[in-house]
Design brief:
By secondary structure, the protein is mainly beta. It is built from three helices and twelve strands. It has helices at 72-77, 156-160, 167-171, and strands at 6-7, 23-30, 33-41, 59-61, 79-84, 87-93, 96-104, 110-120, 125-135, 146-148, 150-151, 182-186. Strand 6 and strand 7 form a beta hairpin.
């Protein structure tokens, strides 16, 4: 991860189960400086009438970013990196949905490609973001057909570069990470509740549980 020049996010405790509309740290460029800010997960476009719109915009499909009014301005002007060391998808097995924890092999940290917006209401301001998704590669495809865009570290600077505003050049950065770099394992239904945010969320479990 690139070192921030300023840290505004609360990093006092690790997170294991971040739910939509909760706060996430995200790295953006502001006035030429890299700032690790705190944002709501769920994008609220600057033109939105109210912030409730963010509930519907937690993810953004890479293939249609430049076509969607909610994302195309942010794609050119407001890109961010969202640090993580794993994410969850739910795999359908018969009538059940098994939570799966997915990470880079070895568990090293990475960054999702994200977009952000600053929304101004009558009495408040809100920084919010969305995570860009793409088609999943093997071995993730049997779990879920889509996955977040994990940017390779050599593309971090390009993704954050405010002078990069050509949509084709930007879109060329959004490709799925190679499946051989990922590993996945089942975790317990403990993660199904956003009230649970502890190491138990990522502990491997027997799918028979």
């Amino acid at each position: 991860m690139l070192e921030p020049d300023e840290i505004e996010a609360d990093l006092r405790r690790p997170r294991y189960n971040i739910a939509p509309t909760q706060k996430v740290p995200a790295l953006l460029v502001r006035n030429g400086r890299r700032v690790l800010a705190e944002m709501q997960w769920g994008l609220v476009p600057a033109w939105a009438r109210d912030k409730a719109m963010g509930v519907r915009l937690i993810n953004a499909r890479a293939e249609t970013l430049s076509e969607k009014p909610a994302f195309r301005n942010a794609l050119r002007k407001s890109r961010c990196l969202i640090p993580a060391d794993g994410f969850y998808e739910w795999q359908k097995q018969g009538a059940r949905k098994i939570p799966m924890y997915i990470r880079l092999i070895g568990g090293r940290p990475f960054a999702f490609a994200g977009l952000f917006e600053l929304w101004r209401g009558q009495d408040e301001e809100l920084l919010s973001c969305t995570i860009i998704t793409t088609e999943a590669d093997e071995p993730i495809r049997p779990i879920h057909e889509r996955m977040p865009v994990i940017l390779p570290c050599e593309l971090y600077r390009s993704w954050l570069d405010p002078s990069l505003n050509d949509k084709d050049a930007i879109s060329s950065l959004l490709r799925p990470v190679e499946g051989r770099m990922l590993e996945a394992y089942p975790v317990s239904s403990h993660v199904n509740s956003p009230r649970n945010d502890d190491p138990g969320c990522i502990m491997p479990c027997d799918v028979k549980e």
